[in-house]
Amino acid sequence: MKRFLLVLSVALLIIISFSAFISDDDPFTALLKKLEEFTKKYPQEKVYLHLDKPYYAIGDDIWFKAYILDSRTAAPSTISNILYVELVNERDSIKKQIKLQLQSGITWGDFKLTDSLSEGNYRIRAYTQWMRNAGPEFFFDKTIKIGNSWANKVFITTTNQLSTDDKGEKVTSTIKFLDKAGKPYIDREVSYEVQLSNRNVAKGKAVTNNNGEVVINYTNNQPTIYKSGNITATLTMPDQQKVVKIVPIKSTSNAIDVQFFPEGGNLVDGLPIKVAIKAINSNGLGENVSGKVLDNDNTEILNFETKYLGMGSMILNPIAGKTYRAVVKTKDGTEQTISLPKAESSGYVLSINNTDTAKMAIKVMLTEDLMNKGDLNLVATHNGMVYFSAKIPTVKQLASLSLPKSDFPSGITQITLFSPTNQPVCERITFVNNTVDKINIEPENLKTSYTKKENVNFNIKALAGNKPTQGSFSIAITNADIVTPDLENESNILTSLLLTSDLVGYVEKPNHYFLNDDEKTRKELDNLLLTQGWRKINWKNIINNQNPPILFQAEKSMKISGRITKGGKPVAKGKVSLFSSSGGFFATDTLSDAEGRFNFDEIAFGDSTRFIVQARTDKENKNVQIDLDMPSNQIITTNKNTGDIEINVNTTLMPYLNQSDKYFDEQMRRGFLSRTIMLKEVKIVEKKNPAPNSANLNGAGRADQVITAKDLEIAFSLSQFLSGRVAGVNIVNGKAVMMRSMGLGGARPMAIVLDGMNMGEDFGLDDINVNDIESVEVLKNIGNTAIYGSQGANGVIVITTKRGAGTENNYARYSPGIVTYSPKGYHAVRQFYSPKYSATPDDRPDLRTTVYWNPHLVSDSTGKAILNYFNTDQAGKYRIVIEGIDGMGNIGRNVFTYQVN
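The line above is the sequence of TonB-dependent receptor; the predicted structure tokens follow.
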């Protein structure tokens, strides 16, 4: 038998070696050509964010570096030039969003965690517009814990007890409310609302007991639909201030979900096959189980056991006429019976042994009735690119071959078996982890120990393929005694770009599979891929030419575009002007095309920039309508990383929060940080600025007369309202004219400044809808007009529009022919503060939790880059994490430590 397999393997290798010379009219060659065209037309991007820390506290900065790759080449992406990064709270609401400009597939930024935020399980989500075509499953989406001690008065801990009755799943949640010193809030009223999958299931009021606890009972009568949610609990403080806390509900059940996955797709009578097992508890985490397989005669066939995160496998040889069921036992002794998939009477089995470091051993088996029916085709792809293709004869029921892993790039390889009629019949994903496409990053001159506040100066050397490489690296240094890493669960450039970015669904402890390269770990990783249940390529769509729609174009630059119409018909060759005075004066013109469309592209601007778009026909008729193209917002999907959600965030992070408190208190003492002060419920009389959003150069509200939106509620038009209401100003032909200038030979109208833009003499008071005005400031005296220079010689009227009138994008339409627009601009990138201690001693404490962060450390032609920074006042084991990429798409990561005494 061994001799037969050896001869067959050699024969297959001969066939493989000539596979490149298959005739062009071969149908399977045509199918691969379709795949090539599809991959070229629909390239995919991957994004990964390197964060400076695994968790944070309110008051911290989240520093990050983004790496975006083209999945076809693994090189830095040139598809998109703009990246969106969002901070999403537990209610699946965006709290912060920033827009970053990409250069050669990299960018960096930060989120400031102000004390207007609360503690909880937040998500950082990143994507390009082009990635939206593939769907949010492929976004970078990481759950991070953010604690709150420094700006917090109420601390909670929650415990849940689960039970079941005939009405559904019952939950008893006990929430304890404590102050910062650990003392309970006694006899305080708590109102609460329970939501499961955004559906209200209970609400009410309670009073805390002597332990500061309230007990909330609720029932989930549809557990298959409503699986998780949250409790919104509002505590009334002794000073009557109300404090709101969000408590996650990870699950309402103790049930264990167990699934069985035949390797390659199906059980087939008479063919031995590996069957993978995956058991997940109600919290979304793997839970080990054991059990046995019985046939329909109640005969025990085999025993099985999962040994890591609820995953394992067994070998089953189905017999014709038999059915099988598994009796699964959980750790508490509970048993459940699950029917295994019914075996097919005719079919194929694809079996792969991937535990060897150098090769993949592949076996193809088929039932006797399928022999001599034509050649099969076996294809191995990586991100849509074909790396192996071979024809397999069907003269025998078993064929085996071996593929060297060195021929494949690191990451997930999809192996598909096609029938003689070129239909996919078996499929399997495997993982390849080569060293040849990784960057080796090593320190030079790094000492094993340093002192507090000592200057640390060392080099890193980056090698790819044992040759120096130029790349961009991000480096984060923390004190591991303060910021404790979760080694198995931390995401990094390897776990993200090579593994999780190509898998849909939650992957528990992704870094576990990269910490060791032994046979046990490779088996555990193989079990993960066997149970993931997803494939990169939908071959049926390729075969049937069912291409996905392109709903979102790749963004190469910012643009403002739209269409102008008159009477519902497009205006061709209309003049469209774009103005802005934010951060300096900007103006440009363009003409509309035959469809009335216009486009201002290749422009760049920061956040909070306001534009005015003005349009006219080619005959200077301003009675046109402008409709801007509004980008649709990306929906917020529910958090897929359910296993990473922590119910008691503050309790879990308390050691880190205590250290953070010291740092923030010291920063506030020095005046570098401020804290929002929550006032008691008292009435405060304050003179409100009547024009808070004005661009008045004198300062908002500094004018001879201010008219508010409330004043204008009774107005039909602005000219009608101003007539007779502003001393020394007359209204002439819809324009405001100061009386003192009327005798100077053709009085000139007062200048109109709309949202910071001087609109010129052609603009009339009634060219703007009075309902869209927030404030009008009239500047008449020289003290107010002088700052406008010659433009203010005849007085100035500053008009400020209502923010966000009409849409979420701060887009307000005025008639005729004017709109104002405040699109999302580029985020202003801040620099991480790293102190430099001179020869003069600095006795002030340095309590930073992130010791050093550099998002763009560039290696030179020799592969070297220099690091220079100072330690903090904290002794401990300092952890250096360096990640990066070179121009060829090689990625690398290394972690090293030193001691500070």
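Note on the example: The longest helix spans residues 2-17. The radius of gyration is 33 Å.
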